[in-house]
Each structure stands twice: as structure tokens, then as C-alpha cells.
Amino acid sequence: MADVKEKFKVSGEPMDSAPPVTIDRAREPIVVVDDLHIIYRVYGAGGKGNAASAFSRVLRRDHRPTMKEVHAIRGLSFVAYKGDAIGVIGTNGSGKSTLLKAIAGLLPPESGGVYTSGQPSLLGVNAALMNDLTGERNIVLGCLAMGMSPDQVKSKYDEIVKFAGLKEGFIQLPMRAYSSGMGSRLRFAIAASKSHDVLLIDEALATGDAKFRRKSAKKIDELRNEAGAVFLVAHQLDSILEMCNRVLWIDEGTMVMDGDPQTVVDAYNEANAK
Ligand SMILES: Nc1ncnc2c1ncn2[C@@H]1O[C@H](COP(=O)(O)OP(=O)(O)OP(=O)(O)O)[C@@H](O)[C@H]1O
Fold first, then answer.
1. CATH (one of 3.40.50.150, 3.40.50.300, 3.40.190.10, 3.40.50.720) for 2-119+196-273
2. ipTM of this complex prediction, to 2 decimal places
3. Category of 33 on φ-ψ map: left (φ > 0), alpha (ψ -120 to 50) or beta
4. Threshold 0.90, pTM exceeds
5. Residue 153 neighbours by CB distance under 10 Å
6. Ligand 1 atom closest to Cα of 101?
7. What separation in Å is there between the alpha carbon of 40 and the centre of ligand 1?
8. Cα 29 to averaged position of ligand 1 atoms, centre (Å)
9. Residue 250: how many CB atoms within 10 A of its CB?
10. DSSP code at position 178
11. pLDDT tens across 188-207, in order?
């Protein structure tokens, strides 16, 4: 992390121009998000959106796509340290998934930056498992995609099947026969079979039942100890309270609060009760 420490202000060491993030020297930074801005560009947007205006555009042969910008993340800054399990909360469209994708390196920043120590892995609701393949095949593919060798896959296989805890026989069925809860259990079991430098979990636990969530919470604890940092996006605030040691509340792409889970969740509930 020397490069990150050099680039940013380390607490107690003043720099000429004050950067927006400050790094605690006593802890190991894993992710630094520095004044991040993400803008989506949507082509083909525009017009009045009713049938008459669409028809008149066709008659005018007006095929030129117009472009609309969605400024999803507006100047977020924070540092995640080794061992952090960070919950990200906010109302629909506040920018939670966009933030995780940006940390995973899937979205280019408009300005500002994201710096990670090690490889981030994003485990999303649509993590790349193949619906037409059996659970068995998906375990092998998923593990290979995470960089395991065939021997490592063999040695992890039983542990993954056990953790996913699918009903008898389902592991030999194509994933399209799974319920959404079963799919998310298998995705989580595959992702959790390897330690990650930065593990990003986007709603992947949302459809698991209470027992599976407890099991996942324990697993996330283990991953936190082995790994760098874990980020969790979830609408169920009790999973956030169970699994995280820190919560970021974002709204319209900006930071509202960053701190202790109970304090942030209480403030969030109070704001949304109005
Ligand atoms: N691919 C995209 N193209 C254009 N705009 C997008 C795209 N993805 C998200 N957005 C917009 O960016 C903003 C943030 O969306 P994002 O999905 O990050 O929110 P979220 O907090 O994860 O929402 P939710 O809780 O509903 O999952 C929203 O205004 C959304 O409409």
C-alpha cells in the first residue's frame, strides 16, 4: 500500500494541498475512494416520451440519438481498512450498486478515483453463473473463474455444496430450476470458498432465509479476518447490523453518514420514517 499512502495524506502529516481523504496511519488501507464521480450516459433518451412525439420523430426521420447524463456518484470519499465489513445503505437509486461496480473496476470514474490493494471481486445478484448448466458445473466454472486450479476446485467442491445446503439432488439440476434463494445460496457459497482481497456483495444474500443469513454472517466474519475488506449492499437493515462493523449511508450519490452501524441505521430509519 505504499503507493496509496504516498498519494494521500496520512493523518498527522500535513500536505501542501489538502486532499479530500485522510488515511489513518495505524491501519492498513484496502480501498481508497477519492472524490469519486460516476456519470452514466444513456443514448436514445429524450423527446416527450409519448406516442405522438415518437411518431413524429419517425416521420421526420429523426434517428439521431439524444444523450442523457445520469450523475450517479457525486464526489464520494472514504477509506476502507483491513478487516472492515462495510454495509452500504440508501434508498432506491441512491448509487449503492454503482459504487460497488466502481470499486470492482467495472465503471470508469468521470473524475476522482478508486484505489484498491489487491483484486476486488463483485458478487452480484446476477453473478455470472449459467442458468442452463447444473449447479455442479457452475461450481467448477465459478471456481475456475475466480482463479482456482482444477485441484483446488476438487478440494473445495464438497465444502461449497455443503455450505449452499441445497435440497437433495438439486445440485445435478440446471440452475434455471432453482428458486432465487437457492441461486443466491450457491453464488454466495462459491464466492465464499476463496478468500478475497476485497469482496463486494450486492444484494446477493437478499433472498436467503434467516438460517442462511446467520451462516453467511459467520462466513463473512471469517472472510473479514482472512481478507482485506468486505462491502455489503442490502435493503434488509438487520443483515447489515448483523454482518457489518461500519455503515455508509449514501443519498443521490453523496455521503450522508459514515460510522457505527447502529447509529447510522437509526439515523437512516428516522429520516425515512418522515
Ligand atoms: N446502466 C445505467 N445507465 C444509466 N443510469 C443508470 C444505470 N445504472 C444505474 N443508473 C442510475 O444511476 C443511479 C444510481 O443507481 P444504482 O443502481 O447505483 O442505485 P442503487 O442505490 O443501487 O438502487 P437500488 O436500491 O434500487 O438497487 C440511478 O439514478 C439509476 O437510475
1. 3.40.50.300
2. 0.97
3. beta
4. no
5. 18
6. 18
7. 9
8. 27
9. 23
10. S
11. 888 888 888 898 888 766 66
